Amino acid sequence: MQTTREDIAYRKSHHMKKTLMIPRTNPSWQPQSWQEELSQLITDPRHLLELLELDMSLLPLAQKAHKLFPLRCTHSYLQRIEKRNPKDPLLLQILPLGKELEQPEGFVKDPLEEHAFTPAKGLIHKYHGRVLLMASAQCAINCRYCFRRHYDYIDNTPSRLQWQPALDYITKTESIKEVILSGGDPLASADKVLFWLLEQLEQIPHLHRLRIHTRIPLVLPKRINTALTDRLKQSRLQQVLVMHCNHAQELNGEVGQALNQLKQADVTLLNQSVLLKDVNDNTQTLVELSESLFRYGVLPYYLHVLDPVSGAAHFDVKEEDINALHREMLALLPGFLMPKFVREVPHEKSKIAAV
Ligand code: SF4
User: How far apart are the first and last CA of the chain?
Assistant: First the structure.
């Protein structure tokens, strides 16, 4: 397909690196809108260490790891990180570390071999009845353990004019009942882009559900505004939002308000976490996460074992520890607060029980 001017503008808005910065001289800076906050991410390791009053000896390796997968963090998420604590569980999810430079055997760039399940640009069809669309090339935060940290978003995220083959594929495959918007983070897209895609999907008669996989309600809660929730409420598709919260410390009042707005728009709220060494790999933390999620109106759904992506091996939890965590949580939680422990295995027809 020929590339037009609109196409180029769209790609630029989605793929170009945003410039900093939270003004260094004004630590009490408050963004006025989600767009402003998204345009003022913390993307410089030195700035992050300064804001959190961390030891500057962390800087040289942080800069090296940042070159492999850039630092991105929102102002809102930063507020929930404890200052002067290099072991803070939220900090460990976003701070580039020297350990990412190690290359242990078995950790690869595309651990789920997603390229093998892409019949049309931006579409992954792996499991029966549902497809995943790469609805955005950007995230509001870069999670160091992300299994798509090496993903080529530029080549694989369609612009508006390039969505047609994926939409045609869904239209002619009547067994598809559900579309999952993923990315990147689908809610990092502008309303105009997101609503256009939603409108296209609503016109496909055999689709029943829209699922949104996102970390935005946690890391950029201002994004969950009335314009978004009103549009979701109007949709003929049933809506499920799968949030991605790994630690109870990620939840606060602002996040609670965002989740409430979604609930009022009849969106079903679920959560999936990733089991991460030194972040949430102990029973007390995981039990507290499940209990807190439920207080915020969200049901724990999956606890994923880490996908073996290169650069994230230091987050891996040993098999025997996973089994022990599962046993201990079962003894402490009611069944509806117990997430399923799962792993993804390339070419399997569903996720696989991890214990
Ligand atoms: S928000 Fe999701 S897609 Fe983006 S870096 Fe984090 S885990 Fe990966």
Answer: 46
